[in-house]
Amino acid sequence: MRRTLIVGLATVSMAGLSAPVSAQDGVTVQRVDKLEREMRAVQRKVFGAGGVVEPEMGIPTAPTTAPIGSSAPVADLTARVDAIEAQLAKLTGQVEQNSFKLRQLENDFATYKANAGAATVVPAAPAATGTTPSTAAPSASVTPPKVTTTTKASADRLAKVKAVEIPSTGNAAEDTYNYGFRLWSAGLYPEAQGQLEKLVKTYPNYSRMSFAQNLLGRAYMDDQQYENAVHTLYGNYKNNPKGERAADSLMYLGMTFAKMKNKEASCTAFTELFKVYGNSMSGGLKSQASSERSKAGCA
Asked: How many whole angstroms separate alpha carbon 158 and alpha carbon 156?
């Protein structure tokens, strides 16, 4: 751009030796006007029409000394070209800054993907209440989680667990999922984790595994086991991106990172959610995702 401007100015100077000043001024004015319009377009491209736009270039207010023998119009054009060059330098700096920030964001998300690459379910540590995830062989019935009753608090929790109805349809995998869902709905997150972990391990071909993994991730998130939640939710999205709850898992992944105070990773997850599933999300999910993204402080 700068070389083009310099060649243009040289052409103006040489033309002054063989053509009337009025004719050369008219052509050069048109060329400079065109450059200024293009520069404004670049400004809008870089800074955005809806954001804060840098002031557009203008003729410097400080007096500009015209070359000896130059006419006033040529001096005016020289000033305008100087203004364009100054604005171009600002735009170049802004573009470089934006590119650097984008590279940082891409590198951060790539690191996060690499760390979560295994995407395996990490079993939760035994809960303080005494809940032990079952690893029993497949059976036709669902058994409630064990809760010790050595303290009043444990006794109260056992009463809450007993209050949750155990489904019994004869479909062990489906009953395990539904029981885990009921425990989660009752706020019994460790007990829900135990049932869902058993489902994942015992029935790997369960037809609604996308639902089960997503719910397990939510149970970890609600129980503030954020590392387990990240691995489970990201694994559900990565390993089965067309699953019924893959988009939901990506949203809850963004929410989990937000709870971990990792704004950058949270916003990256929300960005990927709308990039991958923006046209296929249900209205309810899209509305919730937009709300959660805003809460996380993402643009």
From this structure: 5
